[in-house]
Fold:
Amino acid sequence: MNKPESFRLFVEPEIPVLLRVARSLTGNGSDAEDLVQETLIKAFGALNTFDGASPRAWLLTILRNTAHNVWRKKKPDYVGDWTLLPENRPAFNAEAPRSAEDEVMAGVLDPALAKAVNDLSEDFRATLVLVDVEGFTYAECAEILGIPIGTVMSRRSRAVAKVRKSLQKAKEEAVRK
Amino acid sequence: MKISEAISMPECHWVKAHLIRYLDRDPSAPLSDQELTRLQSHIAICDKCAAISEEYRETSEALSQLRTHVDQASIARLSESLKKLTLED
Ligand SMILES: [Zn+2]
Structure:
């Protein structure tokens, strides 16, 4: 198999993952697509830097660098923020049927959850979005953010604790009303 | 505070510090069998830690439900341009 062909074969399955990370970074689908497009071009040009170990880790590193170096220049309003895209996401517990009481609680907790996450500092939010929302492993998250796994764990742990506290407060306030 | 609570407080602290790793079961940060037993046996007898564990689990689950679907059309367009990119060469 020639080099371009093998590149395509190991990169193609990673496109959805790249898109999810790009969307977390850019905050919308069309910018995310552009960012991934740019990442693929850069990756193809830098094929000789790939050690054959983990295509995903290698691609995520290129994506992160592309976002930070190229994207920032291209889009002056890009702030490198990690967003949750509230306009696109499904309703809280969308698949499970809800009781009237659950409906009321979901109506309280859904915005409370989004607010709790958005109130976190960017470092904490990025870790939480990647691990909890997007389902990346600690190792993948560490790769994407360029930080040690230990830092991922401690940020994550503190972020979840903060969100838990905010939700608890929202729940208590809802019950009191 | 009950005497039993005062005695178990350092243990509660230890459990809280290891709770996320316990709930996540992430391959890069597994708990040892010994740690696992220590944590599970404390949660079995400490209501406070059991409640925190349940709240962490619920929070994590609520967060995972914020995940959105990746646009299939985006994936198709990128696969197509990847094909072009590698064919041009
Ligand atoms: Zn305890």
Notes: The radius of gyration of chain A is 19 Å.
